[in-house]
């Protein structure tokens, strides 16, 4: 089998009544009802390249379940590929962010690798997708499927989750590679206007910002006792605790954190009670883990008693990201080069991924325990981790790039670091928040309201459903 169909849950959209204003909720339910009628008998397929790890998988898992709960036949398939294919697509991903990645080319040879690996996926999809169906193709990996899907008679949307504020020649290399595959789509969706590519018909471009799920194990409410229980059982911090390590699974059933996080050789969990600075992200150079470690070591540690926790997925788990292990190694090397004092203040944790919801509960607890959450990315399509932390009323320090700028209102709902490579500016922003708890609390509260207004699931789902209904009604 080339493609994997991911089991999608069924969540009641009515849940949102408790978190969004009443008029918004009414509008949401009305648009859901209209979309269900328009889509009667049609499936809405989503195609991407991984079922876990990273923001796209995170969003699909919940958005599709709410769509199913609303009576829309939303489905999710993950394509297969070989290691050469994923090296090429990682290169494309890096290039789209304006970065050279492994420095390789995107020429005829890469086109062959890309198209050959997609071939078996096409065959299988043609047995599944019907002429009236709608297909949303996510990101570069499956973009080569767009024309074959059009040939089947489907309505096809290409959804690009990555981008660059000011495109450079490296990004254009990736566009040129992808444009012949992407062009035949009926609609192109970008996370921000600035990400839209030159050369695509502007009338077919829609902007849809991502969103988070307030009820998922990643973002659901969690009291302090449970936060401490989860962190202790996961071995992330051995806090004094009187709570259990429990959470509510997506299907409503009880969950418990049983597995342990792993610290790198010689590393250990932070001691109980210390102030924490936290970054959660995949082990990717564009998340700049080495910069976070150095920025903390040089500009935060000496001025505060805070510790830094950098947490990311167990690297073997993210199948479409061949660079994860290498970047984790580079982060270890940056840690190993610190003085002993600093080594004891910086903690690199990998979180088990066997059970995605357990992993999410760990991230939830860690973000809630953080005094300051950072996202010092060098490039970012949106940066779900920012919205996740804001929803938990955490003050966030993040780079002024990509979709992060749409989330944080500078100085109000977080702090934007204007030069993502400036470690001193980053460190100063973190320090200021650590030493001014009143400002941090106020900023966290404003951050939560910002997410409630702009970045919860109903807004995104409504945009998708309206767009799809418009396309099929012509
Ligand atoms: N994430 C996770 N476990 C980890 C590391 C990351 O669940 O160990 C999640 C994180 O909480 C967020 C997503 O992966 O929901 C990353 O999305 P984001 O948009 O921040 O970045 P991307 O990985 O898509 O570049």
Description of the structure:
By secondary structure, the protein is α/β, with parallel strands linked by helices. It folds into two domains: 3-211 and 456-473, 3-Layer(aba) Sandwich (Rossmann fold), CATH 3.40.50; 224-454, 3-Layer(aba) Sandwich (Rossmann fold). It has helices spanning 22-38, 55-69, 83-96, 108-126, 146-151, 169-182, 224-233, 289-299, 324-336, 340-343, 356-369, 384-391, 404-407, 423-434, 437-454, 457-473; strands at 4-5, 43-48, 73-78, 134-138, 155-160, 187-190, 205-207, 246-248, 254-256, 262-263, 276-280, 307-313, 346-351, 372-375, 396-399, 415-417. The strands form three sheets. It has a seven-stranded mixed sheet with strand order 1-3-2-4-5-6-7. The two termini are 35 Å apart. The model has no long low-confidence stretch (mean pLDDT 95).
